[in-house]
Write a structure and sequence with these properties.
The protein is an alpha/beta fold. The protein has five helices and eight strands; from the N terminus they run E-H-E-H-E-H-H-H-E-E-E-E-E. Helix 1 links the parallel strand 1 and strand 2.
Length: 162
Amino acid sequence: EAVIMIGAYKPCAEFIRVSKKIGMNPLFLNVSFVGSNALAKELGSDGEGVVVTQVVPFPDDRSIPLVDRYHRALKAMNLEAEPGFVSLEGYMVGSLTIQVLETLGTEVTRERFLTAMAEVGTFDLGGIKLTYGHGDNQGMDRVFFTVIQADGRLKAVEKLGD
């Protein structure tokens, strides 16, 4: 009924295309590693209905202060840049890194950085909180679901199936 795929976008897209060509049409699910925008573009019309999990919020949801700052920073660097899940994830990592570094002062080491992350624990990036602790490096437990539309755009999904 479902095929869960973990891989780069080109081989995943090829697997989906070949599967559909031979009449195998389960629900295809990919994890964020695939690069959802690249997968959608590679698949074209074959991408409709493919689900991709994301580890960051929808990059067009400017109601989240973090995402709004991301948009402004992206446009300041390149007016032609398109918002996306991958670059938003990078922006979040950079924002987190800055917050941790600000707690360290001038003596920055890997050990002090990791200790600070665990001891501070929760970092508010602006509407998105990441929480760390000793033995907990996940940051956020939430997963965001998206589905590729017929036109190649990604749409947020609140619930899969019935």
